[in-house]
Amino acid sequence: MRNWRAAIPSILAMVCIVGLAWCVHRLQQIDPFARLNPLYADAGMGNVLVRFSETEVIARQLNAPLWHMKVLRADLSRDRQRWLLDGVQEAVLYDNGKPAWRLTAAQALYEGASRFLQVADARLYGNPVRLTCSQATWRDQTRELQCMGIIQGFLRDGEFTAQTLRYLGGEKRLVAEGVRLVMRTSLEPVAFLQSEPPRQNTGEKQAKTRRVEVTFKRLEEQQGKTRIGEGLVIRDGDTIMTADRAEQDIEAQVIHASGNLKVTDPRVDISADKLTIELKEKRAVLEGNVKILVKPKQSEEQAAQPTSEETRSLKTEMREPVQITCDRAENLYQRKIITLTGNLKMVQILKESGKTRTLTAQKAVYNSRTEQVQLIGEVHGVDEKGQELIAPEILVSVKEGDEWLRISQPGKMVIFVEEEEETEETPTATPPASPTTPPQQGQR
Q1: CB 411 within 8 A of CB 390
Q2: Tens of pLDDT, residues 229-255
Q3: Alpha-carbon distance 168 to 47, whole Å?
Q4: Is the separation of the CB atoms in 85 and 77 below 8 Å?
Q5: What is residue 3's DSSP assignment?
Q6: What span, in angstroms and rounded, lies between the C-alpha atoms of 187 and 266?
Q7: Contact 384, 357 (CB under 8 A)
Q8: Residues in Cβ contact with 9 at an 8 Å cutoff, skipping those fewer than 6 apart
Q9: pLDDT tens, position by position, 308-343
C-alpha cells in the first residue's frame, strides 16, 4: 500500500507529460487562421490567408534578422509562402546581422520558398549611396541587392544616374553600370599648361569648383575603400578626359588612370600611359610617352596681323602650336608649377614657311604665377634659320610687357649674319662740251 502511494507522484508526472505532448501535437495541427478564411474569401481575397494592418514583419534565420519592415498592411498567402506588404514606411536589410540598407517603398513582395524580396518604387539608404529606383530585389541567402529601372541617387561626390546597380554583401562591393555622375570639382589637376581659368557665364560668381560630368561603363566600390571605374569620360566645360580604367584609393585620396589616356581642351591636348592624382598633395603626374600639344589662343585681329622684326616678341613667336614630348610631367596645381623631365623636346612648325623650331633639355619648370620658364641641363635650341643656342641653363620670362631671356652660365650661340655685297661704282661718262670759240694756237 505504501509502495502504491509512493508511486502516485510519478504516475501524475507521466500523465502530465503525456497530456502536454498531446496538446502540443494538436496545436501544431490546428491552423490559427483557418477560421478567418471564409471572411477573406467573401471579401474577394481568396488567396489571402490573413491580413494585418499597421504591423511589423521580421524575417529571421537562426535568430539572426534578415530584414525588418514596418508596413501599413501585410497579407499572407494561403500557402504561407508569400507576403504582400503595402506602404513600407521603414525597413532594414541586414548583412550578417548588421544593418546594410534602409529603405521605404510603395510595395514589397517576399517569396519565402526562394528567400527573395522584391520592392517597388523604393528609396534606399546605404553607405556611401542614397538612391531611388523603380524596382529592387534582395536575396536573403547571398545578401545581394539589385536595383533596376530608373535609378537616381547621390554618391559622396555628387548626383548620379545608372542603368543597373548591385550590392554584393559577401564581398562588400557596390557595382553600377551605365553611370552618369555630376559633381562639383574641376579638371585643374590635369589641365596642364593652362594659364587662364575657364570662363564662366556672365553674372555667375567665380567659384573654386565647377559642374563636372563623369560617365562610366562600369563603376565599382569595394568596402568603401577603393573605387574602380571602366570606360571613363569626364567633361569639365570644354575640357574632356578619357581613360579605359581609373582606380581611386578613397582613404589615401589617390587616383590612378590608365589606358588610352587623353585630355582635350581648346588650349591643350594631352596623352600619356598613366596619370596619378594625389588630392592631398595637390599634385598630378603624367608618366610614359607624355605628349602635350599647346595651342596658343589668339584673337582674329592678332591672327591677321603680320609680324615684322619690330613687332616680334616671345608672345608673337608662340602663335603657332608647340608639340612637347617627355617621359614625365608633374603639375603642382595649387602652387601653379609644372615640371617636365626625361627626353624633353619641344617642336614648333611654322605654317607660313613649313620650317621647324626645336628645343631640347633635361628639365623644364614653368611657373604660371610669374610666367617664367626655367630650362635646365644641356639646353639646345635651333630656330627655323638654323641658328643655335646652347647653354647649361636658361631662364625665360614670357610675361607680356616684361619679356626677357637670361643665361647665367657660359653658353654658345650660332647666329647667321646676312652681309650686303659691295659693288664698284662705275664713273659716268660725260660727252665733251663743244667749243664756242676756235682754239688758240698753243692751247692743248
Answers
A1: yes
A2: 999 998 988 889 999 999 999 889 899
A3: 34
A4: no
A5: H
A6: 14
A7: yes
A8: none
A9: 544 454 555 556 899 999 999 999 988 889 999 999
